[in-house]
Amino acid sequence: MKTVIAGAIGECVHVAGIINFLRLAEQAGWRTVFLGPAISTEAIIAAARRENADLVGISYRLTPETGERLLGEFAEAADELHRQGVRFTFGGTPPIARRAQALGFFEQVFDGSEPSDLVLAYLRGQRLSDASEMDFPQSAVERILWKKPFPLLRHHYGQPSLSATLEGIRTIADAKALDVISLGIDQDAQANFFHPERLNPRQKGAGGVPVRSPEDYRALYEASRRGNYPLLRSYSGTDDFIRLAEMYRETINIAWCAIPIFWFNQMDGRGPWGLVESIREHQKVVHWYGERDLPVELNEPHHWGMRDAPDVIFVVSAYLSAYHARAFKVRDYIAQMMFNSPPGTSDAMDLAKMLAIMALIKPLEDDTFRIWRQTRTGLLSYPLQEDAAKAHLAASVYLQMALKPHIVHIVGHTEAHHAATAEDIIAASRIARKAIDTALAGQPDMTCDPAIQVRVEELTREAKITLDTIRGLAPASTPDPLIHPETLAKAVKLGILDAPHLQNNLFARGCIRTRIFNGACMAIDEAGQPISESLRIRQLLQEDA
Fold first, then answer.
1. How far apart are the C-alpha atoms of 81 and 297, rounded to whole Å?
2. What are phi and psi of 345, to 5 degrees?
3. Hey, is 513 helix, strand or coil?
4. Residue where one domain finishes, among candidates 89, 123, 157
5. How far apart are CA 294 and CA 249, in angstroms?
6. How far apart (Å, rounded) are the C-alpha atoms in residues 511 and 504?
7. CA 428/CA 178 separation, integer angstroms
8. H or E stretch covering 347
9. How far apart, in whole angstroms, are the C-alpha atoms of residue 372 and residue 358?
10. How many Å apart are CA 527 and CA 530, to the nearest integer?
11. Is the residue at 9 inside a domain?
């Protein structure tokens, strides 16, 4: 085990940064020795020899001129240790850090702006300056494991022009703000990429960057080859799914697939397929990625939540998503859990909903099927005022950390006002990182709250009723009703799976009504009172009969 010693030099008594540095060093596997505040040069050098230190960290946070003199004297006194292979690092305020850097003695200088995960990466042996693509894992699972205990950070990004998006990606990568950039592609590209005759020039850039060729995707990927070399991923599209998947793999080394079960078709107006046909096509895409050992995210439950579906349907759709991934041979499944959907949901009931999902899908895991947790803030939950939106982002991410996510999908604080710019994303990343650091430093276990556990039990019990009902809709000869497109579409048509926003929909019943009770989104009866899932379903089936 390698040894790192650290302390504040001279008359400096500020050691909070040193304590944090040593805490990260322990996570990286170092033996750590804290020297304390106001340590003389002679005492630091003696300790380095006594402890047989591999790395010496010193800090100074007072007057820059005095600090520069102290550091110069220290570098001279420690030269012999330096020549013997002992490494030295410095941490201080930006003015002192600049002077320390100019000395050329310290292997790494920290000025306090560095995210904790990058400090941890340094302590694990990564270069922070002159880093190359080899220093950053280029697959999702490898990067998750490499960055642990910090989650990967992901954000959606795409400007209405290709040139602006290219420049923004370069800025984000240089800032090391994200691990994953989710390319926001305009709607025309999602639906008509391989059909230029169907493109509408007036819609160019609507909803994101107007990519029109594989070369455009390659350019976006090339723009990301700098900074911390973030992974890229893109929408799975609404037509020509497999052709798009093949192109994504070749051009942007797509990090993982994200595709729904029931959406991105005629039912929500985003694609040309009918419901049964689109379910079947989506299943083919999931299988395609699974065969190639690429992760898959079925971004299904939040589509129901954003349409005010009750919590139980949110949970059921999350189970169906994980079940689909396993059935179609996906090895690494990314379970997305969007908080604040619908926006009136309380923190406690949000946690309960996500814990119910985890309880239901956990038994699906085995040696061939791994589940990675991804959390995000509700897309529709942001206030318009920027300061309030920033507070909401921080609070939401802190709450999400109760689930120990492997990926945090940051939804920028500008969501209610405009699509995030590169600068917005960098700011949102800093907010999220601080919330994550605070949680990792010692967050209380909010999942143990008795009210939360009662709701978890209620949701899992109710969700099993809904799932059994869906199974019962299938013909007796159906091998697996939960992946049978006709059965799933029938569940939507009958209203077993339903949301208030689906009124007057060709494919859905749209008759369910919901209301927030004590922070939970529940289905209600004609009198406006909560109704159990068993009673709701019984009434639906009686009406259908």
1. 51
2. -65, 135
3. coil
4. 123
5. 10
6. 9
7. 10
8. helix 347-361
9. 11
10. 9
11. yes
Query: Rounded to an integer, what distance in angstroms lies between the CA atom of residue 309 and that of residue 324?
Result: 21
- Identify whether the C-beta of residue 208 lies closer than 8 Å to the C-beta of residue 237: no
If asked whether residues 118 and 260 sit together in one domain, one would say no
- For residue 17, tell me if it sits in a domain: yes
The residue among 95, 123, 151 that closes a domain is 123
Count of C-beta atoms within a 10 Å radius of residue 38: 15
How many whole angstroms separate alpha carbon 402 and alpha carbon 348? Answer: 11
Half-sphere exposure of 242 (CA within 13 A, CB side): 10
Q: What is the DSSP letter of 239?
A: S
| Structure tokens, 179 | 């691990």
* Structural domain total, the chain: 2
SS3 category, 334: strand
- Give the span between the Cα atoms of 45 and 36, in whole angstroms: 14
pLDDT of the chain, 545 residues: tens digit per residue: 899 999 999 999 999 999 999 999 999 999 999 999 999 999 999 999 999 999 999 999 999 999 999 999 999 999 999 999 999 999 999 999 999 999 999 999 999 888 898 899 999 988 777 788 888 999 999 999 999 999 999 999 999 999 999 999 999 999 999 999 999 999 888 888 999 888 888 888 777 899 999 999 999 999 999 999 999 999 999 999 999 999 999 999 999 999 999 999 999 998 999 999 999 999 999 999 999 999 999 999 999 999 999 999 999 999 999 999 999 999 999 999 999 999 999 999 999 999 999 999 999 999 999 999 999 999 899 999 999 999 999 999 999 999 999 999 999 999 999 999 999 999 999 999 999 999 998 999 999 999 999 999 999 999 999 999 999 999 999 999 999 999 999 999 999 999 999 999 999 999 999 999 999 999 999 999 999 999 999 999 998 77
Entry field: residues in the chain:
545
Q: Could you give the CA distance from residue 509 to residue 526 in angstroms, rounded to a whole number?
A: 16
Residue 43: partners with Cβ closer than 8 Å, 6 or more residues away: 35
Q: Is residue 431 part of a domain?
A: no
Question: DSSP E strands: which ranges in 384-524?
Answer: 407-410, 514-517, 520-523
3-class state of residue 372 by DSSP: strand
d(CA 171, CA 331): 33
Tokens representing 150 are 């910090």
Among 507, 514, 518, which Cα is nearest to 531's?
Answer: 514
The first and second tokens of residue 382, run together, are 């942001």
Owning domain of residue 460: 256-294+309-368+443-545
Place of tokens 């994550």: 436
- CATH number for the domain including 67? 3.40.50.280
Residue 147 lies in a domain: no
